[in-house]
Amino acid sequence: MDAAKTSKTSKAEAGRQLPVAHPALKSPKIGVMLVNLGTPDGTDFGSMWRYLREFLSDPRVIELPRIAWYPILYGIVLNTRPTKSGANYRKIWNRERDESPLRTYTRAQSEKLAEALRDEPQIVVGWAMRYGNPSTKSVADRLVAQGCDRLLVLPLYPQYSATTTATANDKLFAALAKMRRQPAVRSVPAYYDDPVYVDAVARSIETHLVSLDFAPEVVIASYHGIPKPYSDKGDPYYWHCLETTRLVRERLGWGEEKLITTFQSRFGAQEWLQPYTDKTVERLAREGVKSIAIVNPGFSSDCIETLEEIAVEAREIFLHAGGANFAHIPCLNDSPGGMAVIEALVRRELSGWI
Ligand SMILES: C=CC1=C(C)c2cc3[nH]c(cc4nc(cc5[nH]c(cc1n2)c(C)c5CCC(=O)O)C(CCC(=O)O)=C4C)c(C)c3C=C
Ligand SMILES: [Fe+2]
Ligand SMILES: [Fe+2]
């Protein structure tokens, strides 16, 4: 470039008052974000109402046309369910921290993951909820403000479902849609057949069973259900659940009848995935089975669905129908086995970034 041209350009640029220097760049970081379903902030009617409204307004969760669903949601569900669910949450609430167990475990998983990744100082770990707090947007914004130009999101669902995994991703992308300077993004795929996960579930069953003073005749792998039409339309969740059970059974060296799959937590009037957990528990007791254990491989943390619906309700159903011994096997939570799964997934999906 000749000197005259250079000085001409400089004068023109000076006239436009361009910044003299590029703003200082923070050294780039990588954000790792654990995302779980969500939970109410309290058990009072208002907190339950806000949580359930956000959750049950998600078209990924309730696929009915809004014009048909909203009168039911606002007219019936949000008038009755906050009281009923609030009473159930109170049974399992973490009073020490004044929060739900799901929030306690998700935070603990994030803190332990950060500790496990301390050899990678460019990584910042965060945790967020799809519904409620800390919101996905607030955590994504914070990670970006901390200098993350890459983001790895881990939806904490071993089995993929549009009602969980996809909506967690949707929420993150909605947050990114508002950013001028977006980070690069990766989302960890479902891990229902990952050997580290299958082994962790099998080991936790083994460990728990040896601690019992009875030997269960049947162990039930109970997964959260989804409406059957969602499955019929192509959600692979059902097949992921069956495959997890098959792999865990194989790893334990058990027969088909010793580890069975059921689905819990029905909501609304339509058919959900079958067989239902509550009906199966009752049937087994009526058929003369005296001892059972239930494991929840689809939940990465204990929560209302495992601590109340299984450890309390399913136990009562079994004992009232003639059963004698019932055990609930805890979720992987922030146990060493559970953390080994999370760390293995994160390290694998960060490949090429670290
Ligand atoms: C149509 C409604 C629902 C679908 C579909 C659904 C799918 C689904 N949910 C989980 C995991 C969890 N669900 C939890 C609570 C919960 N789920 C629903 C409804 C549907 N879930 C409701 C209304 C509630 C709130 C509790 C209640 O009022 O009964 C939780 C626990 C949250 C906590 O704070 O403890 C989890 C986890 C999965 C994996 C899934 C589909 C695969
Ligand atoms: Fe649910
Ligand atoms: Fe439930």
Automatic annotation (TrEMBL):
Which UniProt key words apply to this protein? Cytoplasm, Heme biosynthesis, Iron, Lyase, Metal-binding, Porphyrin biosynthesis
Which SUPFAM superfamilies is this protein grouped with? Chelatase
Pfam families, per the entry: Ferrochelatase (PF00762)
Task: Give the Enzyme Commission number.
Answer: 4.98.1.1
Return the broad EC class.
lyase
Top-level lineage group: Bacteria
Q: Which residues bind Fe(2+)?
A: 224, 305
User: Annotated pathway, please?
Assistant: Porphyrin-containing compound metabolism; protoheme biosynthesis; protoheme from protoporphyrin-IX: step 1/1
Q: What's an example GO cellular component term for this entry? A: cytoplasm
Query: HAMAP family per the record?
Result: Ferrochelatase
User: PANTHER family, alphabetically?
Assistant: FERROCHELATASE (PTHR11108), FERROCHELATASE, MITOCHONDRIAL (PTHR11108:SF1)
| Full protein name | Ferrochelatase
Species: Mesorhizobium alhagi CCNWXJ12-2
Q: What is the lineage of its organism?
A: Bacteria, Pseudomonadati, Pseudomonadota, Alphaproteobacteria, Hyphomicrobiales
